[in-house]
Amino acid sequence: MADANPGPGGDFPTILGPDANFKGELSFDKGMRLMGKFEGKVSTPGRVHVAKEAMMSADVEAGGIVVEGEVHGNLSANDRIELKQSARYEGDLRATKLVVDEGAVFNGHVTVGPDSVKGRPPGTGADRDRERPGANAPAGGPRPGGQPGPQPQPAGR
């Protein structure tokens, strides 16, 4: 499954071929090209390329991600995520840079920018409020730890 030759697949020494159906967790140092089916979790400082014919249902943390096939799950890239014309992606993504080709299909939340991936897993897009406990709670609502917040007082007392 690994191609040690630095030919056309040199950026992707790990290849899951079109007849592969893998379920589990993968971690590697360089790059991986998915041509078959994968379900689970991927963690790498390298690049992940989901080929046109591939199907992935996974959470991915990588240096860079290119999607040409079908992906369901959360994607997080320290560099860039590219959704090519044939991409079909559903999930939340975080990346320093995002490139979406015309024709790509994307359904989910997106956070892009230089600070978007530092120490934060992909989420629902409400991370800003999760970092401030009680930010979405009403004025008299519960606070973290179950303690009630300040109660509003009627005017004139």
Low-confidence sequence ranges: 1-9, 121-144
The whole-angstrom Rg is 20 Å
Strand content: 35-45%
| Intertermini distance | 76 Å
Mean of pLDDT: 80
Q: Please provide the count of β strands.
A: 13
Main sheet characteristics: 13 strands, parallel
Principal-axis shape: globular
User: Which structural class fits the helix and strand makeup?
Assistant: mainly beta
Please bin the fraction of helical residues: under 10%
The DSSP helix count reads: 1
Following the backbone from N to C, one meets helices and strands in this order, namely: EEEEEEEEEEEEEH
Could you describe the 3D structure shown?
The protein is mostly beta strands. It has a domain at 14-118. 3% of the residues lie in helices and 41% in strands. It contains 1 helix and 13 strands. It has one helix spanning 127-130, and strands spanning 14-16, 21-27, 32-34, 37-43, 47-50, 55-62, 64-67, 70-72, 75-83, 88-90, 93-100, 105-107, 110-112. Strands 1, 2, 3, 4, 5, 6, 7, 8, 9, 10, 11, 12 and 13 form a 13-stranded parallel beta sheet that branches. The radius of gyration is 20 Å and the shape is globular. Residues 1-9 and 121-144 have low confidence and may be disordered.
